[in-house]
Amino acid sequence: MIDFEFEFQYAEAKLPILRQVGGGIPAGRCVVLCGGSGCGKSTLLRCINGLIPQFYEGELKGFCRLNGQDTAGMRIGEIGELAASVFQDPRSQFFTVNSSNEVAFGLENHGLPQDKIRRRVDEAFRIFHLERLKDRNVYELSSGERQLISILSAWAMDTDIFLLDEPTANLDFAATQQLKEILLALKKQGKTLLLSEHRLYYLADIADEYWVMADGEIKGKYTAAETKAFSAERRQTLSLRTLDLAEITVPEKELLPKTAPTALAVSDVRYTYGRKAGDTLSGVSFSVHEHEIVGLVGANGCGKTTIGKLIAGLYRPSGGRIMLFGKPKNLKQLQKQVLFILQEVEFQFFTGSVLHELQYGHKVTPKFEQKTDALLKRMDMWDCRDRHPFSLSGGQMQRLTLMMAYLSDKPIVILDEPTAGQDAESLERCAELIREMRKEKTVLIITHDPELIAGACDRCIGLSDGHAEIELPVHSERDLQAAQRYMEGFHPSDAPAKKQHKERFHPATKLLYWLALLVVISMSNNHLVYAAYAALILLTASDGWFGTALAGGMSFGLLWAANALLPGTVFSFMLVLFPRIIAIGISMRTLIGRNEASRTLAALRNLHLPERFIMIVAVIFRFFPVLSGDMKLLRQSIRTRGVFTSPLQKLRALSSYIEILTVPMALRVIRIAETLSASAETRGIDLTRRKSNYLSLRFSAWDVVFCVLLAASIAAGLIL
Fold it and tell me: Which residues form the ABC transporter domain (predicted)?
């Protein structure tokens, strides 16, 4: 069972976030922490799993007992053996690239034998019928699939208690239903569940009690039967979202005249990602009237966000036509007239305060200031106006981006999942603001939220198999039920996983080369550098990185030829510097690409290096696969907000442009590092016991051949 009582105040905070919060949860029960954003739900979970005060500093009073054991004096990892934690954003808590390695990570930290780790990992995927997610690249999985992997990672720890912090905040309708099935299975196994959650409908058959929090206190504890009997007014007072989707009502909405002009027309638009066979979008066609609010729904991965970015001019279609107000538009014209609000809110903030973020790009007149002040108060953000956007909660960030859209001068706005992490009161505020947008704008909402669809949308367009297959009006409860039935028909993708690459070299061989390379490039002997470079190209090609090896070889060849034709010019300098830079980049890719990050970390652990050092390396490795994608999102945000629309503008305000590119990325890295480290602590990275490995590493003839080649290359370079 769980038994606790806490008072807590964050370091440098003016007021306590928890005030005499206490309770007891018997074994095998499910309790849901609910209430408004910022009421202390996540903080309470951090107190129970030990992250407070050991990781998040502050003054903590009280006690916590898990299964009868007092957690005072326990390390976070030791508490993790009693209670497994699942965080809100799975993107920020993965240490490895491979899904099976991720499930094994906590077991490795606790030093279980390798054969037992392998059995436990296989069992996790089999019991929950998720074999399709085994040995997958986690960056190729959907948000819902990533969250499922994080839950499997928690289950693999074999604890009796599960602590989940808003597990559906980033999940679509289908993934939420799959999460429900997993939670039901855990409860049948006798596990104790404590969840912080805003979406409540999927918990109706799971929860035993609902604890309503406000102002850092538990204001009421209600049984499932009592909570289900709440009236709509009572739920609204407690800031609780609906427990039964059938009870959602559709407010009366202003009907558009049938003769309303068309604001957006998408005709046979197609799009292909990279070199993938077949179109991601195979011919999407639909239209939206001026001042209409349309929901775009469909199974995860069906192309909703893609079509939104095509309409906003952030992607270039491979076919078809997009028209605004009756005229076809190119990318630049689309970017000027369409605002796309990303689901990844943290990439859309360019200033140091909430107020300045709303004013950014606008002429600040007394009238605009009055409008902004009223909007902040209306959205319950007035007290946050001087705070940095990155200090806000996830729900507050979502509301800030929605206010930015409301103040935008662009006539068409596309919102991607605008109500993630919103409580009932905030959801209603968001729906009202979106309805008010229609006075000046046309709005397209990418969403899986039935409550938002009911409160804001005039109709829904369903995407499936790369095209728009259905249109559903939302004027009555019957219409909404039809839309819900359509959404309930979504199923997770059963697409086969990509064939796993067979690594030829032991990670220790690559580490040896990398260390040798660092020594070589620090020397002035260019022939030695070129010899080591040639060895690297051969290693890269032999390991299956043919494109990378070809690009590296051609780059060096072109520089060599240019220097031969024009000796004593800038090419001579480039021939000295560039091979060194390119070699570092290529060697890092061979160390962390595909599943190599996990294998490299396993090799470091086999060398019995300090775990803190390995954790630092793991955090560094974690960022490489996502930095390019994050930078892409940031550039899209800059384009859609109309900032620096031409190279000349970027040049004129180069310092501001660089600041906008670097500051959000730096803050994003800090946030990921914090969550990643917290996740590692709860899964035992701080334990002093001997660690083990899920992966088996063996040297082969390839390693011997390359080591001989490396020695020969260095010798040849020295002789030359």
Answer: 2-240, 264-490
User: Is residue 227 domain-shared with residue 295, that is, in the same domain?
Assistant: no
Domain membership of residue 657 (yes or no) is yes
Query: Is residue 288 a part of any domain in this protein?
Result: yes
The reply to whether 254 falls in a domain is no
Please check whether residue 140 lies inside any domain of the structure: no
Q: Which of 70-74, 190-194, 503-507 has the lowest mean pLDDT?
A: 503-507
Strands 281-289 and 262-271: antiparallel
**Among 342, 302, 359, which Cα is nearest to 487's?**
302
- DSSP state for residue 293 in the 8-state scheme: E
CATH code (residue 473): 3.40.50.300
**E strand or H helix at 698:** none
Q: What is the pTM of this model?
A: 0.84
pLDDT confidence of residue 323: 96
581, 688: one domain? yes
- Answer with the one of 243, 278, 305 that is the final residue of a domain: 243
Residue 412 and residue 379 share a domain: yes
Q: Identify whether the C-beta of residue 427 lies closer than 8 Å to the C-beta of residue 251.
A: no
Least confident residue range of 54-58, 59-63, 290-294, 399-403: 54-58
What are 214-228's pLDDT values in tens digits? 989 999 999 999 999
Check: CB of residue 381 under 8 Å from CB of residue 396: yes
In a shared domain, residues 209 and 323: no
Sign of CA dihedral 32, 127, 102, 417: negative
Token representation of residue 66: 């898990």
pLDDT tens string 14-43:
889 999 899 999 999 999 999 887 788 999
Query: Both tokens of residue 697?
Result: 């590493």
Alpha-carbon span 550 to 56, nearest angstrom: 47
| The two structure tokens encoding residue 11 | 């370091």
The answer to whether the bond into 507 is cis (omega within 30° of 0) is: no
Q: Report d(CA 352, CA 449) in Å as an integer.
A: 31
Which residue's structure tokens are 């902040």?
376
| 179 close to 155: Cβ distance less than 8 angstroms | no
Q: How many residues are given for the chain?
A: 720
The percentage of the chain sitting over the pLDDT mark of 70, rounded to a whole number, equals 94
Going by the DSSP 8-state scheme, the letter that residue 169 receives in this structure is T
Question: Does residue 49 contact residue 14 with C-beta atoms inside 8 Å?
Answer: no
Query: In whole angstroms, what is the distance from residue 87 CA to residue 491 CA?
Result: 24
322, 389: one domain: yes
- What pLDDT, in 10s, does the model give residues 544-598? 888 889 999 999 899 889 988 888 888 888 888 888 888 888 888 888 777 677 7
Q: Determine the Cα–Cα distance for residues 373 and 577; give it in Å rounded to an integer.
A: 54
Phi-psi map region of 86: left, alpha, beta (phi>0 left; psi -120 to 50 alpha): beta
Domain ranges, residue 478: 262-488
Alpha-carbon gap, residue 660 to 489, rounded angstroms = 42
525 with 414, same domain: the answer is no
Among candidate residues 172, 156, 36, 56, the one with its CA nearest the CA of residue 45: 56
**Got the DSSP string for 657-683?**
HHHHHHHHHHHHHHHHHHHHHHHHHHT
3-state SS, residue 440: coil
- Among 453, 488, 523, where does a domain finish? 488
What is the number of structural domains in the chain? 3
